[in-house]
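> Could you send the ABC transporter permease prediction when you get a chance?

Sure thing. Input:
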Amino acid sequence: MAVLLAAGVAVAGWGRLGHGRDVLRAGIRAVVQLAAVSFVITWVVHSLWFTALFVLVMFSVAVRTAGRRMTDAPGWSWTWAAAPIGAGVAPVLALLLVSRLLPWQGLSIVPVAGILIGGALTATSLAGRRALDELAQRHGEVEAALALGFEDRDARLEICRTAAATSLVPALDQTRTVGLVTLPGAFVGMLLGGASPVAAGAVQLFVLVALLAVEAVAIVVVLELVARGLVRRPVQWRS
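Output:
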C-alpha cells in the first residue's frame, strides 16, 4: 500500500498534474478513516439508532464535500448540496427498506446507504462543477438568450444542461459493463461472505439500478439549483 501510494504521488508530480500532495493526503486520510470505521462499525451495526446516526454523518460529510467541490462562494451556499443528495438517496433508501429488499439491520443498511450517498456525492459535485464551468465560459450566450426573451432560469438551463448531464455517464458505463469489465464491490463482497453467485448478482443489480435513479435525481436537482442561481460562483455571469 505504501509503495502504491508513493507511486501515485510520484507520477502525479512527474506529470505535473498539480495533485501530488492531494494524492498523499487522500491516501493517509483514507487509512485513518477506514481504521476508525473498522472499530466503530462493530457496535454501530447492532443498533438501528446508531446506524441512523452513522448514515446521517455520512450524509453530512457528503454534503460538505460536494458543496465545496461545486462552488467556492463565501458563506453557506455549499449547504444546497443537501438537496440533490437527499432527494436522490432518501426515496430510494426508503423504498428498499419499506419493500424489505433491504433488511432492517445495520449491517445491511450502512453499506448500501454508503454506496448510494457516494454515488449522489459524485453526481452532485460533477454536475455542479460542469454546469457552473459551462455558464462561466459561455456567459455571453446566457446574455444573448436573456436578450431574446428567455427567463433567467431557462437561459441558464439551455446552456448548462448538456454539460451537467454527462455526469451520469460513469454510472451508465458501470451498469452497461458490469460482469464484462468489472465485478463491483457488493458482488465480490457477498461472494467472499459465502453467498451464492445468483444472490450476489441480484443484490448487485438492484444496487446498480438504484444508483442510476439516485444520480439522475441528483443531477436534475443540481441543474435546478444552478439555473435558479442558488448555487453559483462569486463572479459567474452578468444578468
